[in-house]
## 1
Amino acid sequence: MCGIVGYLGCRDAYPVLIKGLHRLEYRGYDSAGIALISGDNELNVYKSKGKVADLERFAESKDISGNIGIAHTRWATHGEPNDANAHPHYSQSRSLALIHNGIIENYTSLRAEMESKGFTFRSNTDTEVIVYLVEYIMQTNRVDLCTAVQLALHQVVGAYAIALISKENPDEIIAARKSSPLVVGIGEDEFFLASDATPIVEYTDRVVYLNDEEIAILRRGEALKVLNLNNVEITPEIKKLAVNLSQLEKGGFPHFMLKEIHEQPRTLQNCIRGRINMEGTNVVLSGVIDNREKFLQAKRIIIVACGTSWHAALIGEHLIEDLCRIPVEVEYASEFRYRNPVILPGDIVIAISQSGETADTLAAIELAKSKGAFIYGICNAVGSSIPRATHSGSYIHVGPEIGVASTKAFTGQVTVLSMLALSIARQKDTIDVDTFTRLVKELQDIPNKIAKVLEQAEAIRDLSKTFTYAHNFIYLGRGYNYPAALEGALKLKEISYIHAEGYPAAEMKHGPIALIDAEMPVVAIATTDSIYEKTISNIQEIKARKGKVIAIVSEGDETVHNIADYCIEVPRTAEPLTPIVASIPLQLLAYYIAVNKGRDVDQPRNLAKSVTVE
Ligand code: F6R
């Protein structure tokens, strides 16, 4: 939610900042802005409602000179998306400018206090109060910018990643974070600052991830200095970035989402690589090995996640209960964090998150930690907050996911959960060797099977045209494929804005079947599994009410072909792994319907990739 970029060095800051904003646009895209200190020490702020391209059009005739600047792309929380609410925000005297990602929870009281002192605000945001407060502290306490930021942040309640520049000091950026991510890139005589490493990667591979309540001082001609809010100096840990530039480009595809769908054979290969031995007789997740006893003794596993990651968690529940015989509960992180959940000795909490920054998931982790649970993270974004907040975990290694609708991260999460379940089951001896070996072999073959599904992309595109103008969709699945149905429905609604619901197929008769008529498309996952016959009965019930059935079936299936209106075949695999292959045609169907409708597939309305607010 909201993207932050900063630059200080010898280059022109404007192109670096604009490029950085484009890379971070997936985090929010309702307005954007930039602040630059020009050669003659003017602090110029340009902001515009809309996307980064709108900001560029607005700024092109203005003075965009300067070697230092900060920039922001917004996902509105407080105050509608308009020019005034866009960041950066000036201080009252316009000598400071600030950008912010997060939410200041006590902004109303801070604002009222400032107003009582005669300050007048120019926006409806929660952000503006910080920069006013910082300036007020500088003036009244006669302290420098960094000290004023430290003092101001002591008064602020909430989440923030902020960056400030001052026209009185054109050689310095002050940045700070709490519960919202911030990365500093260290180049030759230059610094970069961003919400994640994507704007930095083409300039340097040396980065420092700030921790909560740390302040970074980026000063021309000096080394990076990191302090905490109490002015204690902290030695920054410089990490090497593993991401490369080509991972951040569309690579010839019209959208990141389509690229990411097509990448899945390779991303899952990367996810599996090094974790299954050559002979396919062992699955090694280092996080599981390092905590072997905890997993072997676990009395219960609770999985917390949001959105697509929550759907992956539901598949994880099936896998772990089925293979490891450990009871599993899956919780929305946003609900878990506000209950008083029972965490018992021997419970393990698994947190799943693509971005590693989701505020609700982070809060659920902190709550579970405070109750003494061992926390295992399953994340994609390396170095993000969740892997740092958890005791141990596994990366899914699918590379940066930029399309707002999650695709390759979902299949990566399910793949890691499959390996986790297999690895625990093998050690607990809850799986026989033959079943283990067969599942491992099937898992190794999943990338090839996905490649086969992708060969049908054109056919799915043709099929999608029939449904461009549908107003509703129902997605059905059972067992392992019920979460895949939920995920298919989520994909469609978030990028096409068509209302879609996912149900366990047998649940239809308890109410939702009333919705079925000849206008209702129903996507039914009916692969040949242990409840195939039951699913067929559920499809018959839909057909008897004239619903239009698009069935996802196993290769060579004949029965469903004779009942459904349209069939998409997927290669046969072991039942626990079917949701991985079955979700690929659902991703493609959602994608093509959204394209047919002319939707902004990579940046659908109202959404943002990284949900760092609750
Ligand atoms: C949907 C989607 C979201 C995320 C959710 C959690 O396509 O991407 O539902 O899955 O916001 O995000 P992470 O996994 O980053 O915690």
## 2
Amino acid sequence: MHEECGVVGVSFKDEAPAALSIYYALYALQHRGQESAGITVHDGTQVRTLKGMGLVPDVFNRSDIQKLKGYVGIGHVRYSTTGGSKIENCQPLLVSSKSGTIAIAHNGNLVNSKELRDELEKEGRIFLSDSDTEVIAHLLVKKLMHSDLEEGVRELMKRLVGSYSLAILVDNKLVIVRDPLGIKPLCLGQIDNGYIVASESAAIDILNGHLIRDVAPGEMLVFSNGTYESKQLVKLKNSAHCVFEYIYFARPDSIIDGELVYGVRMRIGENLVDEHPADADIVSPVPDSGITSAIGFAKKSGIDYREGLMKNRYIGRTFIMPGQDMRETAVRLKLNTIKPNIEGKSVVLVDDSIVRGTTSRRIIDLMRKSGAKEIHIRIASPPIISPCYLGIDMATREELVAAHKAIKGVEAVINADSLGYISINGLVKSVGIPLDDLCLGCLTGLYPVEIPGEQCSRRQLKLSEF
Ligand code: AMP
């Protein structure tokens, strides 16, 4: 099961209600998951949770938010693929024990969750969901029975293999943990009267706060009484920040691990011109995901930027639709051409990525029907050749068009006049983070953690480094 999610944690100094801030922050993170949303708050004596299937405004109304009393809390938006789309998997997830209640919100994916779950089930623990987050929750509860918070979380981290950005409520303490490779983003901000931690800095912005810094890989933050304490529980030589956050997943207005996503996408567009120049009349984006790179391409090449496609903004991402037929229908529903802009023109069409190839093929067909003379596709990621096991819902290897075909083959499948992908070097240069500190698993087939049946890059997580 693969998941894409957004997490939030808020801690206020006084009795200010955390739920409203969490609600706004989840709104800002809605693009990270549209399947379910949830908030858990604590008021010093009682924990309260509300969660449900659907978008943030479908799950919460004004009176719900008012009833969620508490000055500290966590929130979650979630999207998962087949098998996981049910209410039991909604987060925050609560686990009670003799020592109290733990609520947990997780972004990421563990690759050893089955093994850990089998072990915990043998000890008699009962699981209510099939999510790896419940495994983390049970394991933490177990560790906390014998250790204090710092030692318990350290022990927990020793067992988890994969990506995890966590917002946890241990009674009325907000505990934040980022995995030792910093695979999924997580950042810390200051807001009026307190602090916020969120998957993306855009959530801090909308609360009128300011970004303090990223949570460091392997770091734990504990918030209580209006302050926080930081513990670097694990320190590895290198990080493995997910490069797909920059390519597609994150909002362009977010700053992730020091890099503004908009800037990265602009630079990719500019670098694409050097790597794959095109002789064309206009540069056009596939909205919304190709817009920023298309602007970069147009600026650098001097070719006119002109929109050839218009998006219906009331339709979610087509990827979200289950089943291939639904996806194809969704593309038609989602995009229409602006005919006079493309008729008789040679068009450079910029998109962020090609996964299965279905979207590109349909868009190209649509543009040809509307009279485009030539269509030169430029893609802001290198070919995606391997699945993601670490928190991006990508597709299986069989479904990935570039896993089986060379670039000329993909060009033929999508029916483009030419196809150019940014190179891995060009991408890394555009991101501005050293190659050794990025996870490029989907582009290279080399993963930063050990995954059965896959190759591991040199940054294999060694438990001896804890
Ligand atoms: P396709 O090649 O038909 O699978 O669709 C690729 C398009 O889907 C890309 O251009 C992206 O805009 C979008 N996309 C890529 N990865 C994801 C993802 N993990 N979740 C949702 N949409 C995605």
## 3
Amino acid sequence: PTGLSSLSTRITSSSFIALKNTQYFCKNLFRIFSLQALFVILLQQIACMGFLEEIKRRRTFGIISHPDAGKTTLTEKLLLFGGAIQEAGAVKSNKIKKGATSDFMEIERQRGISVATSVLAFVYKDKKINILDTPGHKDFAEDTFRTLTAVDSVIVVIDVAKGVEEQTEKLVEVCRMRKIPIIVFINKLDREGKDAFDLMDEVEQKLGLKVTPLSVPIGMGYDFKGIYNIWERNIQLFQDESKQTIGKKEHFESLDDPGLEAEIGSTRLKNLKEELELIKGVYPTFDQQEYLDGNLQPVLFGSALNNFGVQELLNCFIEIAPKPLAKQSDTRLVEPDDEKFAGFVFKIHANMDPNHRDRLAFIKIVSGTFERNKPYHHVRLKKKLKFSSPNAFFAEKKQIVDISYPGDIVGLHDTGNFKIGDTLTAGDILQFKGIPSFSPEHFRFINNNDPLKAKQLAKGIDQLMDEGVAQLFTLNLNGRKVIGTVGALQFEVIQYRLLHEYGAKCSFENLNVHKACWIEANTESDDFKEFQRIKQKFLAKDKSGKLVFLADSAFSLQMTQDKYRDIQFHNTSEF
Ligand code: G4P
């Protein structure tokens, strides 16, 4: 019994030790796990903070102007100040030179360049700046409208001598409709031009903006002495030199600096003081929220060619311009700090190499992070896609990137999966809104000139339309295909590309259409049935099958609208 009891004591004590050990082990394990969990949480938090910081430091914007106002020059100078290029001239203009209405070879050559210049990114004072290129040529206005869906703000460039021009009016109208924050940059102050105050009046009247100057020019043209920077409260004197690199400018901190009077003369100094008083009395004080809400537009002056006023513009821009904004989808407002990725295609660029018919789809990241080799959901096609080489754009180069953040643009190689307006997500079923088609200005029938190549022609048309080169309408009556474009130039581009990229010969035949209107109606109503019967000849389907009325004149459109009051005639495809 003693032996037994000692055995049992030993067993008890050894099981006690084992229990203790297990407890100890568990405790440690628990500690390790909780430490690990803590560590993981900490890492997640750091990543989340990093993610939020990345969003905060991004500024994605577009520069818009009438051709020749100086958009390309300004873009280049911004890159110069951002340290992305060392000398102006490194970024080639992708604008189609004036008068090139029939020079599509030039367009082809430039198309190659514009892939690289579609997005120009650089870092300035720790802000990641993405400039989205917008073609200035009016025949490519549709492209510009679409690009504007991907920007969070814009800078409008106006030529001091020419003032507000037609193309600027159209583009600003789109920005105003969407409440995009706008900064106005009045360029070419080294040339004789309109009076600064008259010009600001013109901007208010023609563009429907409410402006407030953040700088004032001192003189103009031959007499251009410099700029008083209201934003930074200092004065820069103009020296017409070192256009290609960043030169040092003479700079005064105060209007009372005795050196300033010596430089600009007492009369000019007196005028400047009066003008500043006038500004205080007449224009509203700058209010960032009003600017962000699209209700107030700051104006700055300068000369892009002379690097003058550009850095001041950039300094002001990074402080006031919005970080990536939320975007409306059909189901909800998608916020940039939503951790799940969502983005949309706003531009498709055909590859220049005719042997590889792949394209580059430009995606604006709206929320979450976009990661290389991660599967994403293509909402329209309902399928998962993975991308092994997403491109990011730095200055004029493109590079493969592993991770991109809201506000960034990635270029994805595409073999025909994407259309403009497509949404890509981490799994959510949603579709971003706001990439409508507008009525084209020119309409022509497209005819196949080589019956053996009908398939190639159909495929070519299909893909060019996906790229947004033009719009396709199919007549209800006989199925004939009508191409609608913003400018006459696109017909040449289409013909050339169909032949060179798809081996399909086509010709165009004039068609008298004034405007395409998208129809919204109760299809069961007698009114609609009558409209359909009477206007049969003028009805067509757009590429997504929506009903469109091709009115042959403004008069007939008006008459039709007056007659069928229950039918809505929309100017854009999104209503
Ligand atoms: P865009 O992209 O808006 O079409 O205009 P771009 O920058 O190409 O400028 C159009 C013309 O205006 C260019 O001259 C450019 O040098 C000039 N320019 C731009 N900014 C200024 C400025 O601040 N002052 C003056 N005086 N001129 C300016 P170009 O002769 O058409 O072309 P280029 O031969 O100089 O390239």
## 4
Amino acid sequence: MSTRKARIGLVGLGVMGANLSLNIADNGFDIAVYNRSTDKVDDFVADAGALVDRVIGCKSPEELAASLQSPRAIILMVKAGEAVDKTIETLLPHLDEGDMIIDAGNADFNDTRRREADLSAKGFAFIGMGVSGGEEGARHGPSIMVGGPEGHYAVIQDVIEAIAADYQGTPCAAHLGPDGAGHFVKTVHNGIEYADMQLIAEVYGCLRDRMTPSEIGQVFADWNDGPLNGYLVEITAKVLGATDTGTDQPMVDVIVDAAGQKGTGRWTVIEALKLGQSPSTIEAAVAARSWSAQRDARAHAQDLFGAATMDTPPSLADLHDALLAARILAYGQGMTLLNAASDEFDWDLDLARVAEIWRAGCIIRSTLLDDIAAAFRGETPHGQLAFAPAFVTRLQDTVPALRRVVGAGTAAGVAMPALANALAWFDTMRHARGTANVIQAQRDFFGAHGFERLDRDGTGFHGDWPA
Ligand code: 6PG
């Protein structure tokens, strides 16, 4: 057993864990690593190259605990869910009071809240830390969203800030609030990720009958030089330009049109609904992934009803502006959801700070986030990004194009659920007088649920309904 003591430990040497460990070592910190199947520990040490002197490979939780400076800080990068609880169970007998466990997986924030309460009652520190950026981000600088007691974060802040992505000299890592705040923010990040991916896919869908994938890729590459600049637009240009070497076909043309999902998008929607929120673009994106998976049923429906194409497809300029408008609305809906959760759980989330740490390292990084951060540092009436002066102007400029694109799709019978639902939210919000008076009347008619009146104060009025 080694006599050296590392600054930090990590359990779970999958792709993300291994890359995060190398990132930590690369930034000058000694790291002790452990994995349940210990051959991964050997492989990791063997592949550590020049960083091997900063790495301590451990074959048991006991050895890991013995290889760490006190108070111990151990990052978990294991599959979200039961594996996290099981790993914590195996570690606890080897830890001392005051030692810290940091869950860096895509955890359900409800689990994080439970674990934090549970471990703090036992005298341990627990941090729930959302990490975004995929494999590349983990190795060279992810965006890191931290939740848990602020004093506990202070113990590892230097390590976290050193390994995080850098945006113009500022680390993309922050302590955002207590208990599950970090994992909730990561969940909503992923919800926005789902929405933005779906919006991009819908725009691709408008173009693919008249352009080749690589031509569409070039459109996205051009757009990436303007206000739509961001990681997801950038990689869309790349994936559309790629060729399958086996068949010489465009790569996207040999990929089955059924999207996978591990659950974070769905969690965003579930938590939003619990909070009385409805982030329509994210809901639509989750729905679209589920519908995409029903391939056989879709083939059957095409036989029954026929498929549609747009006779007069939208112009590239309209698609650009429609994507921009819908992206603004999607980010805005995510931010509104964060605000609602912050109120509900007393997190006091700083939305400008959240936008700032998303500006580099994470999957939804985009030029827009700098403007979003500025908007939340200024005036956002009703907490709505869309109502911030700079975004009012941008939406006035771009929503007409969104309307034309959705109109063309609807008229032709081509689905664009995320674009259409972004517009539905916008159009609902801009009508001070909606139609829910009829719903209230119906509720009172069949269940005497009562309503409020425009002409009188008070609640619980009933209508003079016919029998
Ligand atoms: C990130 C990503 C990352 C992962 C998602 C994919 O921020 O780095 O969001 O967490 O790519 O888990 O989620 P789905 O498998 O649900 O698309």
